From TrEMBL:
It comes from uncultured bacterium 5E7. It holds the Pfam family MurB_C. Pathway: Cell wall biogenesis; peptidoglycan biosynthesis. This is UDP-N-acetylenolpyruvoylglucosamine reductase. It catalyses: UDP-N-acetyl-alpha-D-muramate + NADP(+) = UDP-N-acetyl-3-O-(1-carboxyvinyl)-alpha-D-glucosamine + NADPH + H(+). Belongs to the MurB family. It comes from the Bacteria. Cell wall formation. Its main location: cytoplasm.
Length: 304
């Protein structure tokens, strides 16, 4: 297959043809990402329920079509060539909250926005997810990378994850079996699709206020320009942003992409940037900084 070419599908059955006919072709994706860059999806669909998500994923897998689940698009750098296969926009956003004595049990579909879940918990005077009110992603995207901030992360309150396994079966695992560590979960390696997650909250003391943490973000991060959050994981004992700044790269520009002059672990789109410009800045930082810089943002799509 040459770059940008659609995957070859073994002649689809009538049911397969019908499945493909229900999808949108050549769907522009840049507007669905926080970076506002990247090319189209070969095929695109939105899922508003778990059943619809499962039907779409299984249908694509049966046809040999790669699947990419798009949450809020806030942790991806999408290639200018776009994504081969089916992109499913996750709009499954039901959440239930049950107070049981001194605990709050939350069951959230994976397309629910994390800040909303965090604020709903605060309304009920549970403060475990205060840190998460400034992370602009879905529950599924956050579980995928064990998202975190200010010393807390998903693993602190996640109790279970329901997902679609590669054989198409729906499974549930306790959080302890999800291999959650710094910006990592098993789902990064397996290609399984997160359908829902459970959280058990118990923190009744408001040790940090959401408004204060989020003001801190606005003061230190370039939130007025399109970006995808921190580009690199912090190497042990160091801050990636400080290392990039010390290497003299703060403010460096390639095309319309720039290593932010406000926070050097952010790359911003100054307007009309290409994914290739962002990638070139990533490679420049990795080549210039002595310590290895591992990507936190996910490269998505066709980078051949
Ligand atoms: C301004 C800003 C600030 C940020 N601050 C933080 C922060 O403090 N801490 C932090 O950890 N992150 C931060 N991020 C990054 C990002 O918001 C988080 O990683 C978030 O959890 C990503 O969720 P998403 O729904 O946007 O995922 P997406 O970007 O849509 O997807 C990310 C990856 O997860 C996969 N994925 C998404 N949903 C599913 C699913 N249901 N099943 C299987 N795979 C799935 C996608 O295929 C993709 O590979 C920030 C981003 C921005 C733009």
């Amino acid at each position: 297959m040459t770059a940008g070419e659609r995957p070859h599908l073994a002649s689809p059955t009538a049911a397969g043809e019908e499945f493909l006919a229900g999808l949108q072709a050549d769907y522009p994706l840049a507007k669905l990402t926080s970076f506002k860059v990247g090319g189209p999806a070969d095929y695109f669909a939105s899922a508003k329920s778990e059943a619809e998500m499962a039907r779409l994923v299984r249908g694509a897998w049966e046809l040999g079509l790669p699947v990419f689940v798009m949450g809020n698009g806030s942790n991806i750098l999408l290639s200018d060539k776009g994504i081969r296969g089916l992109v499913i926009r996750n709009m499954c956003a039901n959440v239930s909250y049950a107070e049981t004595g001194d605990r709050l049990e939350i069951a959230a579909e994976s397309g629910a926005m994390l800040p909303r879940v965090g604020h709903e918990a605060i309304k009920r005077r549970f403060y475990d997810l205060v840190y998460a009110t400034g992370i602009p992603g879905t529950v599924g995207g956050a579980v995928m990378s064990n998202a975190g901030a200010y010393g807390w992360c998903m693993a602190d309150s996640l109790s279970w994850v329901k997902f679609l396994a590669r054989d198409g079966a729906i499974q549930t695992l306790p959080a302890e079996q999800c291999e959650l560590r710094y910006r990592h979960s098993r789902f990064k390696d397996t290609g399984e699709v997160v359908l829902a997650a459970g959280f058990t909250l118990s923190q009744r003391q408001e040790t940090a206020k959401a408004a204060e943490l989020n003001r801190k973000r606005r003061d230190s991060q370039p939130l007025t320009l399109p970006n995808a959050g921190s580009m690199f994981k912090n190497p042990p004992g160091a801050a990636a942003g400080a290392l990039i700044e010390q290497a003299g790269l703060k403010g460096r520009r390639i095309g319309s992409a720039q290593i932010s002059d406000k926070h050097a672990n952010f790359i911003v789109n100054l307007g009309g940037a290409r994914a290739a410009d962002v990638r070139a800045l990533i490679e420049l930082a990795q080549a210039t900084v002595k310590e290895p810089l591992e990507l936190e943002v996910q490269l998505a799509g066709d980078w051949t």
